[in-house]
Amino acid sequence: MSLVKFLWPSIALAAALSLAACGSGRSKAEAPPLGETFGAEDTYSRSYPVAPAIACEATRRALLGQGYST
Length: 70
What we know:
The protein is mainly α. It is 51% helix and 0% strand. Residues 1-20 form the signal peptide.
């Protein structure tokens, strides 16, 4: 009977410590840099006088031609 009295608190302590270890050491994800917005007047943006579907298809083909999968 004394073994059971010793065993249960030991198991409970081990379980509590292992659960506490699972939650510790995690840092919050770093926030993205401020000012990271993209607009039509940015350096690398382009406007073309075509329908959006045509521009999207041309962009997709250009990316596929460079090895990107879309």
